[in-house]
Design a protein that fits this description.
The protein has about 240 residues and is of the alpha/beta class. The chain has one domain (about 5-240): Rossmann fold, CATH 3.40.50. Helices cover about 35% and strands about 25% of the residues. Strands 6-7-8-3-9-10 form a 6-stranded mixed sheet, sandwiched between helices. The longest helix has 16 residues, at about 170-185. The radius of gyration is 18 Å and the shape is globular. It starts with a strand and ends with a helix. The relative contact order is 0.17.
Length: about 240
């Protein structure tokens, strides 16, 4: 059974149809790149996977549970399993890096303060962010904010990570750092869905691509099958981003 399964997903906003029949799945430990042009609704799909959007019709399955009709209370247990990495890091501006990382532990675990401190320092060390522990988000570069956001998303060991343009606007150094982190988490067996226009990073971290367009998944291809006839639509999309 796939960890994520989206079936016949349909969604409109104010009468404008965004998705009319989106169907795809993500297997355990797999990283799937959800790609497509601007405005095709990639983030709408991500937000729906944690219940921030509800489909007009269709089904969304997480680890064998259909979540599209769950209440906010029941969605809490889904959100413990599924981490969402927002484009801007989505940190609490008034909290230090330490407090940002402590928040999910205090909300969702029974760790004492000593255990929380130990876990946070270990996490920041792993993410190369130890020197940022007492800083406010405003004191960090955009790249470091994104890395802190990613570190926070991993604090309660989610089984799934949803990446929403994690390298957008980053310099090459921080892009590489994000790429290395995604690969490290993938090696740990984390299942992920990766939305991006950064195709070099996507090719480096993803196992498979789903091309979203015209309200549906237009094509799928394994990354190792790119440049073959079977990946025509996806390769054409990639070539278009690269300018041919």
């Amino acid at each position: 059974m796939p960890v994520i399964a989206v079936k016949n997903f349909k969604k409109s906003f104010e009468g404008r149809e965004v998705h009319r029949d989106v169907t795809f799945h993500v297997e355990e430990g797999e990283c799937v790149g959800l790609v497509g042009g601007s405005g095709v609704g990639k983030s709408v799909v991500l937000r729906s996977l944690i219940g921030l959007e509800k489909p007009d019709s269709g089904e969304i399955w997480i680890e064998g549970e259909e979540i599209s009709k769950l209440s906010e209370r029941d969605l809490v247990k889904i959100r413990r399993k599924v981490a969402y990495v927002f484009q801007n890091g989505a940190l609490f501006d008034s909290m230090s890096v330490f407090s940002n990382l402590a928040y999910p532990l205090r909300e969702h675990t029974k760790f004492n303060e000593s255990q929380i401190k130990e876990r946070i320092h270990a996490q920041l060390e792993e993410f190369g962010l130890a020197e940022a522990v007492n800083k406010l988000p405003s004191e960090l570069s955009g790249g470091m904010q994104k890395r802190v956001g990613l570190a926070r998303s991993m604090m309660i060991d989610p089984k799934v990570i949803l990446y929403d343009e994690p390298t957008a606007g980053l310099d090459p150094f921080n892009t590489l750092k994000i790429r290395e982190t995604v690969l490290r988490l993938k090696k740990k067996g984390v299942t992920s869905l990766f939305v991006t226009h950064d195709m070099p990073t996507a090719v480096a971290v993803c196992d498979r691509f789903c091309l979203l367009g015209d309200g549906r998944v237009k094509a799928e291809a394994n990354v190792d099958k790119l440049h073959t006839h079977s990946s025509g639509d996806i390769q054409q999309f990639i070539d278009g981003l690269d300018g041919g």
